[in-house]
Amino acid sequence: MRALITGVTGQDGAYLSALLQKQGYEVFGAYRRSAAPNTTNLKRLGVEVEMVPFELGEYENIKRTIDKVKPDEIYNLGAMTFVSDSFDIPLYTTDVNGMGVLRVLEAIRGKDIRLYQASTSEMFGNAAPSQNEDTPFVPRSPYGCGKLLAHSLCRNYREAYGTKVSCGILFNHESPLRGYEFVTQKIAYGIWDETLELGNLSAKRDWGHAKDFVEAMWLMLQHDPNDFVVATGESHSVFDFVNAAADAAGQKPEVVINPKFYRPTEVNHLCGDASKARDYLGWEPSTTFEELVTEMVREAKCSISTSATTQKKSQLTKSAPIQSNGIQADQSA
Ligand code: NAP
Ligand code: G4F
């Protein structure tokens, strides 16, 4: 079996690559052009995949890549994923997260390829918890709106053309590979500092582990096309996360509220009901909230210590600094 994973350099891309390789898949990792593609997450999990260029903004590029790789399954994880930034770059966000998915759907129309689309609990906005597949979508950010466009198009292509697409409505999932701007990773690192600047502490999220959630993605493509909520069913506030991280670290910084981290419109409370995924796919999460927080806090501490040691070593072994013109500075002066 051949799988193409878009957004392979991200958190889920790395965990999913590891899972699919374990299942015996040939995995192709689709990455977007950059001066230096970041394979840090894949390397941290010891995964090597064949990397292929892929840009969600460019139809011909998507089509060429799919025609070349000839995948049996595509996992579309590529997206602009930071909700806060989507208020600053709404056109770009909607193009990549919404129209980008339409480009993928067009590229596979009529082909025997199964597609997983990374939908999100952010589409629920402030709909009352707990949220399931029948809960109305009332998104509260350009990110959520773009994802809802994609979600609606996937359903339409499934009904209109028989496209074998499944959408996973995934609630927040985290890990030591999480991007640094997301609140959990910010806390996991910041808990070791003297102060920690945050925004809205009362927002509640249903936080699970990415390693568990990618299993649900794979299971969806082994069943008839459908949509599934994937969640732990337990929610905690940002404030709870700080306290759990402090317990894991054995220390607590001063928490400073900085309104610059507030959003123009906030999603207050997400808590998912994943009964359908449990009943149809046999999926259940295996990591508790406390285990997730502890793993992230400990890994953050290791990375901080490693980078401090590397920095110290490079300072000790450094000879004269290199000037911007490339000439070694004279330290005797
Ligand atoms: P992530 O770590 O931020 O990774 C996003 C990936 O998308 C990166 O590999 C990024 O490439 C790539 N990408 C960004 N713009 C692209 C473009 N124009 N063309 C092609 N690729 C592009 O996100 P994640 O946490 O793994 O999430 C995976 C997917 O699940 C996303 O679609 C996200 O919206 C969705 N989701 C995530 C969560 C969650 O809690 N993690 C919950 C629900 C849904 P670079 O490395 O070059 O930036
Ligand atoms: O960690 P966050 O930035 O994640 P958010 O907005 O829930 O989005 C994540 O989950 C979605 C699924 O529901 C994904 F689709 C999306 O791609 C992404 O992975 O913020 C979580 C909460 C928010 O309510 C935010 O206002 O934490 C609050 N928060 C408080 N202080 C903060 C901060 N968020 C960030 N990023 N930074 C803060 O300092």
Distance between the termini: 64 Å
Query: Which class of secondary structure composition applies to the elements?
Result: alpha/beta
Element order, helices and strands?
EHEHEHEHHEHEEHEEEHEEHEHH
Quickly give the CATH architecture of one domain.
3-Layer(aba) Sandwich
Q: What's the overall average pLDDT, rounded?
A: 94
User: Shape from CA axes?
Assistant: globular
CATH H-tier superfamily of one domain: NAD(P)-binding Rossmann-like Domain
Low-confidence stretches: 319-333
Radius of gyration: 21 Å
Question: Strand order across the biggest sheet?
Answer: 3-2-1-4-5-6-11
Ligand set: NADP nicotinamide-adenine-dinucleotide phosphate, ligand G4F
**Strand residue content:** 15-25%
Helix amount, in percent? 40-55%
| CATH fold group of one domain | Rossmann fold
The total beta strand count reads: 13
